[in-house]
Recover the amino acids of this structure.
């Protein structure tokens, strides 16, 4: 259930293994009525996602619709730029349009003879005992009931498959919202489809209590997302007129304002999206039903890991399928117990990264600490990998990355009082601490 990104990728993994797959999607065929503008955050595809795509040989197909971003470009209040590389030379995250990626995956799904796709099929209810799903055709209103051998709920953060499981005994479920929403805006292409900002970077306008980001698109535009409080002096609730919006952008984003020609129109036309974290357990019902992707672990977008975590679900699931072929109870149980601690860790890291992106990236002490951590990584790569590369450029389990990041913070709390400039790294007392905590620790 669910023909989004994770549903398509999971279907491809199963179909290429010879399983007969029926994929049911609530919306009409995206390729015939493409309509995502105003509701989507551009996605950042990184190593975990590429590993999952390469696992079934489709990475090269997806690279055709992706743009590499090698670092953050920070825009201050005066429009001054500063650049922070994401990792080592050549490491990048990739900007992809959610709709463009979904269309590419749907094309691959339809080319796989073991998969049948059913559009406009809205899940109404699931009978867990019989594995029967009641569906309503959103175009015709016709209702049908299907029965599945195995049912995979990949129907998003507001999953109806999960909702049926929430009624079972001892099912744990929580959802928590940030007091922030997001609104999509667009930086238009320049003459001849030229990008008006540095193309190979993720742009951030950090403003302490809120921020705006921009990711490049293939047509020369940038998709901007304003993350903004719902209430307060500077908030969605307080920008009520076209004059309010333009005055606010002129004050807070002066270099971006001339690049957003339809600012007022987009601002009032596009909805405010919610930012929710969803945690639940169990993800499996016997050997019949399994939740994956946002249905089991919805997270906020500030680490760029929502899609990557969902794609990594497919990698882990495929490995278990290879190890325990046919033993669905073991596969489902091991999957949920392996992934639950990691996705919980990633949910917490995503909220932490929001605080980092909106205010710390312009703090000189924070930037100095990042440079010292970069030196440690360059000198002792086997002993020290900063948190961001662990999450983004490796497949180290998220929970392990989180725990290592916390240890690193404790070590840096010992080192940074002795560091006022980058050159202080070579001071004897700093080197003694490095030896104690990094080399020998």
């Amino acid at each position: 259930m669910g023909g989004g990104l994770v549903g398509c990728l999971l279907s491809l993994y199963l179909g290429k293994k010879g399983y007969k797959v029926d994929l049911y999607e609530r919306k009409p065929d995206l390729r015939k009525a493409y309509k995502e503008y105003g509701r989507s955050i551009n996605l950042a595809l990184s190593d975990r996602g590429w590993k999952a795509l390469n696992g079934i040989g489709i990475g090269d197909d997806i690279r055709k619709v992706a743009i590499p971003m090698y670092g953050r470009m920070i825009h201050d209040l005066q429009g001054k730029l500063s650049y922070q590389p994401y990792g080592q030379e050549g490491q990048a995250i990739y900007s992809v349009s959610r709709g463009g990626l979904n269309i590419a995956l749907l094309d691959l799904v339809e080319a796989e003879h073991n998969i049948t796709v059913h559009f406009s099929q809205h899940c109404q209810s699931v009978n867990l005992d019989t594995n029967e799903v009641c569906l309503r055709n959103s175009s015709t209103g016709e209702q049908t009931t299907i029965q599945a051998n195995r049912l995979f709920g990949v129907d998003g953060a507001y999953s109806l498959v999960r909702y049926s499981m929430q009624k079972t005994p001892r099912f744990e479920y929580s959802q928590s919202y940030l007091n922030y929403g997001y609104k999509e805006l667009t930086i238009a292409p320049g003459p001849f489809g030229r990008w008006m900002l540095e193309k190979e970077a993720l742009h951030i306008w950090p403003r302490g209590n809120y921020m705006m980001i921009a990711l490049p698109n293939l047509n020369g535009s940038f998709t901007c997302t304003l993350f903004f409080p719902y209430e307060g002096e500077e908030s969605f609730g307080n920008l009520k007129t076209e004059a309010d919006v333009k005055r606010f952008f002129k004050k807070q984003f002066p270099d971006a304002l001339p690049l957003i020609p339809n600012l007022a129109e987009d601002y009032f036309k596009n909805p405010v999206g919610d930012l929710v974290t969803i945690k639940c357990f169990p993800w499996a019902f016997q050997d019949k039903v399994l939740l994956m992707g946002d249905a089991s672990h919805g997270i906020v977008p500030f680490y760029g890991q929502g899609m990557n975590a969902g794609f990594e679900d497919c990698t882990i699931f495929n490995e278990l399928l290879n190890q325990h072929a046919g033993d669905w109870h073991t596969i489902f149980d091991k999957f949920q117990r392996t992934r639950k601690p990691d996705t919980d860790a990633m949910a917490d890291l995503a909220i932490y990264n929001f605080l980092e992106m909106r205010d710390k990236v312009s703090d000189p002490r924070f930037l100095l600490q990042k440079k010292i951590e970069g030196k440690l990584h360059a000198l002792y790569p086997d002993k020290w990998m900063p948190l961001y590369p662990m999450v983004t450029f490796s497949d180290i389990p998220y929970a392990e990355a989180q725990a290592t990041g916390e240890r690193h913070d404790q070590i840096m709390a010992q080192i940074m009082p002795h560091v006022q400039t980058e050159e202080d790294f070579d001071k004897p007392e700093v080197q003694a601490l490095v030896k104690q905590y990094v080399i020998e620790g």
Summary: The first helix runs from residue 5 to 16.
